[in-house]
Amino acid sequence: MRSLRMRFTMCWGSLCPLPRVCHKPRPQHIRPSLLVIAAVLPILVYAQDTPGVSDQPGAVIKGKAPVAKEILKVKIPKAKSFRLENGVTVYVLEDHKVPVVRFNLQMRAGSLFENKPGVAGMTASQLDEGTTTKTYMQLAEDTENIGANVNAGSGNENANISAAGLTEYTDTLLAMMTDRLFHPAFPQDRLDRAKFQQKSGLAQMRTNPQMLIGQLSNKLFYGGTPYGRPVPTAESIDAITRDDLMAFHKAYFTPNGAIMGISGDIDMKTLKSKLEAAFAGWKPGPTTAKLPPANFKPKEQGKIYLIDRPGSAQTVLQFSNLAVKRNDPDYIALVVANRILGGGSSGRLFQNIREQKGYTYGAYSSLTANEWTGSWGASASVRTEVTEPAVGEFYKEFDRLQDTPVPPSELGAAKRSLVGGFALTLESAEGILGRTLELVQNGLPLDYWDTYPSRIEKVTAADIQRVARKYLGKNRIQLMAVGERKQIESGLRKYGPLEIVQPDQPATR
Questions:
Q1: SS3 (DSSP) at 206
Q2: What global pTM score does this model have?
Q3: How far is CA 18 from CA 222, 303, 339, in A?
Q4: Cα–Cα distances in angstroms (integers) from residue 370 to residues 312, 374, 456, in the given order
Q5: Considering only CA atoms, which of 334, 318, 341 is closest in space to residue 220?
Q6: pLDDT digit string (tens) for the chain, length 509 residues
Q7: Is the separation of the CB atoms in 9 and 31 below 8 Å?
Q8: 33: buried, middle or exposed (CB in 10 Å: 19+, 13-18, 0-12)?
């Protein structure tokens, strides 16, 4: 969900968003006005502000703006909810400041449920390519004529259809969504076009270091399961047929387990009747799709995997291990630990490997957590000639997080940064509702975000050490590197057992 970002002269430190399900965090330097945030939701700030000095070795921040020492407290507006007759649960958050309405329908129809690679994504994307009532061009013209946005897509777990536009076109937006949902034509010419586009990008994808590491990571942590499927091949793309899309749509684009989020300038008195009428013909299927078994465990023995990429001027490094599911009790401590390690430009990795050593443009850590076990790790692209010392600095930072308690000032700054960034995601009804749907998808209580700041505040330095040892201990880390083998292999072998991996061959698990 996107929300408006505004800049003002009043600074409250360096705020970075809460880590979500992402693969490559970006540093953000945002200076929000607390008055503006307070206009969106009740936020209370308590503290006297004092300038400070960074805990990073060799780094001194002069003229630093004062920051609050106490954690922010938030009270988030609650979405109203109701169930349609077909079982769809609807969550609604009213916001009458602007005459706009947004719909987001999510179904259990992601790639984890497909029986042929690429079918789920292709099915969702083709919903915009024509229906039995209108061609692709007619659909595009209809949305353009009213200044609306109607889109369909999919991920691992869910497929979604979304629509946004002026409130006066609420009925039209619903009709646009249901036409795509109920009457997809899957025209052969549009399918052929999409397949050609996918195949055209394969060669570039298979030489992209990030893609190579992503595929290797899936094999190592999830290999042999639907969670670890490789990227498509030309053959697997060619194998997708129109019949496959129709069968997948019939089986999974059902109300079973579906949820809908609606935000904006809406009239609750008439909304439910409008939805019942719009989705009257959408009947539940015989079963509700369930995620495949996912009992994954962190690796117990560290190893290095090297993908040879001749001619590379850089080495792409990814340090990873499996961590937790989204509802795991360790999640909050990992969020704080990740922020300290490398969740932004003030993180230890960035300050060490970029600012002090100059090995890279940026070094970051990232945490993913879903309904199944996600990962925690760190990454950077470093100059080939400094690959060996750069790897050593990563391991030093991993060890420091485990062996030395985080100083109170650094721990407090990380907590304020996380909660401040979290508050910025609540600037709009759309953002708040997105947070609500996130809770529903992960089986968390609906008051979870009210207590999120206090949960962050309770994390101690001992908690940071504990989760660092548990999930990112030096003898457990899986290091994946893409670079020129003849220049970096000997240096990498100094850090542990090494396996040479061909891009299209599975690594030893």
A1: coil
A2: 0.82
A3: 25, 30, 9
A4: 34, 6, 19
A5: 318
A6: 433 333 333 333 333 333 333 333 333 333 333 333 333 333 333 232 333 334 444 444 444 444 555 666 677 888 999 999 999 999 999 999 999 999 999 999 999 999 899 999 999 999 999 999 999 999 999 999 999 999 999 999 999 999 999 999 999 999 999 999 999 999 999 999 999 999 998 878 878 899 999 999 999 999 888 898 888 889 999 999 999 999 999 999 999 999 999 999 998 889 999 999 999 999 999 989 998 988 888 888 999 999 999 989 999 999 999 999 999 999 999 999 999 999 989 999 999 999 999 999 999 999 999 888 999 999 999 999 999 999 999 999 999 999 999 999 999 999 999 998 888 888 889 999 999 999 999 999 988 998 999 999 999 999 999 999 999 886 889 999 999 999 999 999 999 999 999 876 544 55
A7: yes
A8: middle
Q: Give 67's DSSP letter.
A: B
Tokens for 508, please give them.
């030893």
Lookup: tokens for 298:
């962190």
Please give the torsion angle defined by the CA atoms of residues 142, 144, 146 and 152, in that order, rounded to the nearest 10 degrees: 70
Cβ proximity of 42 and 423 under 8 Å = no
Please tell me the distance from the alpha carbon of residue 475 to that of residue 454, in angstroms, as a whole number.
33
Which residues, 6+ apart, have CB-to-CB distance to 426 below 8 Å?
Answer: 40, 41, 74, 76, 432, 435
Cβ-count burial 310-319 (b if 16+ within 10 Å, e if not):
eebebbbbbb
What sign results for the dihedral spanned by CA atoms 165, 170, 175, 178?
positive
Which spans in 88-187 are helix H? 119-125, 136-145, 170-182
Tokens linked to 463: 């908690």
CA distance 210 to 204: 11
Residue with the two structure tokens 């705020």: 15
The single residue listed with the structure tokens 């759309």 is: 430
From the list 298, 240, 278, 209, the residue with the least C-alpha distance to 115 is 240
Which residues lie across from 303 on neighbouring strands?
A: 478
